[in-house]
């Protein structure tokens, strides 16, 4: 099976985010970058499919030089080859990224293209669907279970209020959701194996962006919590507050 | 604001794979180990369920060549891994120290080809657990005075004696035991279940609670000649193993110190007294500054000795300096962090007191603070104060 995994490098979920002075971008100076957690599910699934059915896993990432670390993490988890699409920055417009990825994906003739359902930084949730449209192949996203039988794929995905099971055939695109698998930690041996893999670098000319970030804002400060009481006597009051004030019940 | 413990950006010097190893072990500890350590610490047990995963990650036999199941990596990477393990708990790092430096290292360095092929892959995968028996009930800092004897017989050796304070002692499948013979000190691989060999768990510890500590007793224990480490001759052999372990401890202590510092800083920023965070008070700031300065110095020592170790030029007294300094400072940092956490700092809701209590053991084991002082003293004066 010839599998591609598209990954994005994102700030660590534990990083305290600071904005640049113009409030249009995240200040990257003190940020620890990681492999987008949803992409970890995609990488893990790709590696498991390779281990079960044979084949090769190609890791593809678009962005500045620093994204190589995310590529290396995916390789350490079991990827075989890697392509780095070099740009100065991550485009704000998902369509621009998708078009650049699609041109590379077309060449690769992949049976399966896996990626996270979304990146945890800009949260657009668009990449699997746009890639599906650009490549004109089935795209199924928010997938929590994937089964392969020859050329046929069965995917279970989360929808509002339930699950949906879809059948389709390869080639196809899968957007991975939490629950699809439990991603492995890269082992020390995997890390050293990844070190020896040459990452193929390609310069890409990205199209002009139709979508621009006007400004970013910090979330409003959280108001302090309230302790209603510390015994069973407080339960009625807690229920009342949850119902009337918090309006969650 | 400077987040985290790397004030001078020392880790920016790491290569991509070094950074990835550090991050992987850090993630493993944060996501898997920390959620359960409190419970195991309270119960006084090592969480055995992590042993296979530690093996899979490649954390056993980090510097042992791949042909024997190790990862074949640098001592520098070994150090980074120990730092991140001890960020979790000294007991976790101790387990890895013993397996790597005190069991796999002596088998690799002093063992026969058969012993290496038999044991190293099993130990690397975590399928077998090892321990190291040198210290005795009456002989700690002076192991040369050991009383455990191995007597040559027609069939092999007859082992008699006892070993004390042995990490992993009661859970190990194989013990590397040092004993006096007519030809000086020799090392033996004593397998669990050997007649005459018993291992008892030491109870009542207030330190390293999430680590197994045992006593090994040998009563006319028959050991075949093929279980003797053929290349280990004299006290130098076990001391060389301790040197390996101490090197990892120097890194580990800084990991524990980072955990305490980070917890204390976060606490000081959120704890409000007299209408403002206590981090705004001069006395608290001084404590935090001292802590972070010592962490930074300790890291720089580790970086330098790590490089020496990989170049093959690290002397035992270099390692004494990093072990002595870093553990001493880590203990001071833990105590200082505990004082910032105040009353909250005495409960296991916070990790600092666990680290603080653990570090009391680390201060004593693998060469006490005082003995390391005298080793360094000897190296700069040529005069031994203890021999």
Number of strands of chain A: 11
Hey, roughly how much beta strand do the residues of chain A contain?
25-35%
- The CA-CA distance between the termini of chain A, in Å, is 48 Å
The main sheet of chain A comes to: 9 strands, mixed
Form type of chain B = globular
Low-pLDDT runs of 5+ residues of chain B are none
Q: Hey, roughly how much beta strand do the residues of chain B contain? A: 5-15%
Question: What overall form of chain A do the CA principal axes indicate?
Answer: globular
Number of helices of chain B: 10
Strand order of the largest sheet of chain A: 9-8-7-10-6-1-4-5-11
**What's the CATH H-level superfamily name of chain A?**
HUPs
CATH topology of the largest domain in chain B: Butyryl-CoA Dehydrogenase, subunit A, domain 3
Helix and strand pattern of chain B = HHHHHEEEEEEEHEEHHHH
Mean pLDDT of chain B: 97
Radius of gyration of chain A: 21 Å
Distance between the termini of chain B: 50 Å
Series of secondary-structure elements of chain A, N-terminal to C-terminal: EEEHEHEHEHEEEEHEH
Strand order of the largest sheet of chain B: 2-3-7-6
**Which homologous superfamily in CATH is the superfamily of the largest domain in chain B?**
Butyryl-CoA Dehydrogenase, subunit A, domain 3
Question: Which range best describes the helical content of chain B: under 10%, 10-25%, 25-40%, 40-55%, 55-70% or over 70%?
Answer: 40-55%
